[in-house]
Amino acid sequence: MTVIKQTKYFIYNSQGITNKEVNINFTIHSNNSIHIIHRAYTTQITQHRQGTHATKTKSAVQGGGKKPWKQKGTGKARAGSNRSPLWRGGGVVFGPKYRQYNKKINRKEKALAIQSCLENRNSNIIIMNNDFIRDFSQPKTQLILKTLKNWGVNNQNKILIVIKTKNQNLYLSTRNIPNINITLAQHLNIRSILLAQTILISVDSIPIIERCI
């Protein structure tokens, strides 16, 4: 069973001053949502596994069609193929085979996991006004560093910035800061939320996050 939990946040400008508030409605599980978050996380990370590992069995190894020596009379152990797993250059027994590790998760369950995770991380969330994005008329790394300092955010920590639309100047401004990750609201994923120590969300991306369920 799901419930809607409303959380109030202050909206900050680039100077670190706040004079407005906004409410975010998170749709979360009525009980513990840890199992849903775990399912969403494992589903995402397994989709990055290639699964192209493979070895050749006795039947797949080239050669070995002729019996190396006759069955009896040589004093040696009987052998039917020089591609037996007992031989050097032979096949592999019970080796890894190609497989797909992909798991499936329902769309609504994934959205529920994202909102539950955000609600659990509410103390690490900072809401920034839309003017902050518009300030980047050109790439300015010093501006983003100064703004983070005004917000009391350590730029050595992992920071996730969630915005509504692409902003090339903002991307170029943060490209030289290794711990900052920028994502669009519609592409928000569970792994990015869990890895981030601070989450910055623009005001105009809040409706997209609320509508993801």
Provide a descriptive summary of the structure in words:
- Belongs to the universal ribosomal protein uL4 family.
- InterPro entries: Ribosomal_uL4, Ribosomal_uL4-like, Ribosomal_uL4_dom_sf.
- Keywords: Plastid, Ribonucleoprotein, Ribosomal protein, RNA-binding, rRNA-binding.
- This protein has helices spanning 34-46, 107-120, 130-134, 141-150, 168-174, 190-195, 206-210, and strands spanning 2-12, 18-29, 125-128, 159-163, 180-184, 198-202.
- It is of the alpha/beta class.
- It starts with a strand and ends with a helix.
- Helices cover 28% and strands 20% of the residues.
- The chain has seven helices and six strands.
- It folds into two domains: 2-47 and 104-210, Ribosomal Protein L4, Chain: A (3-Layer(aba) Sandwich), CATH 3.40.1370; 50-100, no CATH class.
Per CATH, the architecture of the largest domain is: 3-Layer(aba) Sandwich
Distance linking N and C termini: 14 Å
Rg to the nearest angstrom?
A: 28 Å
| Overall pLDDT confidence | 90
- Give the number of domains: 2
Low-confidence stretches: none
If helices are DSSP runs of H or I spanning 4 or more residues, what is the number of helices? Answer: 7
Largest sheet: 6 strands, mixed
Strand order of the largest sheet: 2-1-3-6-4-5
Order of helices and strands: EEHHEHHEHEHEH
CATH homology-level superfamily of the largest domain: Ribosomal protein L4/L1
Biased composition (Polar residues): 47-60
Keywords: Plastid, Ribonucleoprotein, Ribosomal protein, RNA-binding, rRNA-binding
Pfam families: Ribosomal_L4
Family: Belongs to the universal ribosomal protein uL4 family.
